[in-house]
Amino acid sequence: MEEKEISKAVIRRLPRYYRYLGELIESGVERISSSELSSRMKVTASQIRQDLNNFGGFGQQGYGYNVKFLYSEIAKILGLDKKHNVIIIGAGNLGHAIANYVAFEKRGFIMTALFDINPERIGKKIRDIEVLPLSELEAYIKENEVDIATLTIPKTAAKEVAERLVNCGVKAIWNFAHTDLNLPEDVLVENVHLSESLMRLSYNITSVEKSREEQ
Ligand code: ATP
């Protein structure tokens, strides 16, 4: 397929297409029209056509989309056809939860090691993933391929650890620490600020309650 710049907005929507298409495959659906997909996903049919046309327009007039083909094309675009080795820095509650979540592995994200500074955590295993001392971070990255580093450490430690990761050549950081990281432009940072997400929900609850009170 011809390499083409796909907008960030489209990329943000692709995992959702991927999930729906996966569900369609599981229920034995082989092809689907944009209007059918549109009513399932609650996205306009024209948005779907526009999004999917971005990478070659696999839909055919009167036939719709070949679900399996589209699913595997989206997987390729998202890089899900390859395995990604992931390390987790911070073996606290969140680090544990991520390491324990086996579904990531089905998508090709392999959790290979955890790191921590707490001697009580070092040496323990979560599933079969060992918690290593942070002092071994550089040596580990040198010897093992690391595609993504996850930060589940307090914000006070995040900047320093992120810089160490970048100095070792790590190019993608999945950041759960409550802070913005200022890293070189070629380092990809995906922030997952859980408490901000809760705050947005809180805002919405509050505004629904307010409007009820006003009625
Ligand atoms: P805990 O279960 O210890 O209360 P938590 O998930 O509630 O953890 P945090 O204080 O965010 O909360 O700590 C997460 C983990 O990060 C802990 O295991 C802690 O030891 C570890 N940690 C703290 N600083 C660092 C660091 N610089 N490098 C690696 N791990 C760190």
CATH architecture of the largest domain: 3-Layer(aba) Sandwich
The portion of residues assigned to helices is 40-55%
- State the distance separating the first and last CA atoms: 56 Å
Q: Looking at CATH, which topology of the largest domain would you report?
A: Rossmann fold
Q: What can be said about the biggest beta sheet?
A: 7 strands, mixed
Give the number of helices. 9
CATH class of the largest domain: Alpha Beta
- The geometry reads as globular
Query: What letter string, H or E per element, gives the SSE order?
Result: HEHHEHEHHEEEHEHEEH
Structure description:
The protein is α/β, with parallel strands linked by helices. The protein has 2 domains: about 10-75, Arc Repressor Mutant, subunit A (Orthogonal Bundle), CATH 1.10.10; about 85-195, 3-Layer(aba) Sandwich (Rossmann fold). Helices cover about 45% and strands about 15% of the residues. It has 9 helices and 9 strands. The strands form 2 sheets. The protein has a 7-stranded mixed sheet with strand order 5-6-4-3-7-8-9. Helix 2 (about 35-40) crosses helix 3. The protein starts with 7 loop residues before the first helix and ends with a helix. The model has no long low-confidence stretch (mean pLDDT about 90). The structure holds adenosine-5'-triphosphate. The site of adenosine-5'-triphosphate (ATP) has 17 residues, from helix 5, strand 4 and helix 8.
